[in-house]
Fold:
Amino acid sequence: KKCVLEIKGLFEEEWIKEVIQIITDLGYLENVIFIAFDIQNLYIVRKLLPDQPAQFLTGEWSEELLRILGENKFALDIHFSQMNKERVDLLHANGIEVNCWTVDDKETAEKLLEMGYFVRCLDNLSTGKMENIAPFMNNDNFEFIKGDIRSLEDCKNAVNGIDYVLHQAAW
Structure:
C-alpha cells in the first residue's frame, strides 16, 4: 500500500528533511508519495529525493503546468472540474500521471468514467440511492461495493488493487 503524505503550508527545507528522516527510519520511504499545493515544498522534495514520487495538488489548470510537471517529474493531482479527456490525453502523452480529487456526485463519476478512469464506489447507501449509480453498473470501469466506511474489512476490500482513494464519507 502507498502512503500519500500531504505537506500542508510552506515548509522549510529542514522540516522536510526531518519528515523524510522519520519515514526513512521507519523503513517506509519507498511507499510514500508526497503531495502539496505549495509547489515549493515539492521542489525541496525533488532536490532531496530525485526519484521520489511527488504530486502537485491544484484546483486550476494552466498551460504552464505541463512544462513544470514534466521538468520536475511531478504527477498531477487536480480538482476534477479542471480536467477533460483532451487534457488527460495530453498529460499522459507527456508521461505525466493524473489524479483527480473531490468526487462526490453522479455527474462527476460519469465524467471520470468518460475520461477512462476506473471508479470504485464504497457506500452503505444510508443517504444515497442505488438509482444514482444504476447507470454505471454495466460499465467495466465501474465497481460498486455495498459496505460501510466504519468497517475495516469493507475498507480493505474497497482499496484492494486501487492506487488512489478519494474519500468523501464522513463519520
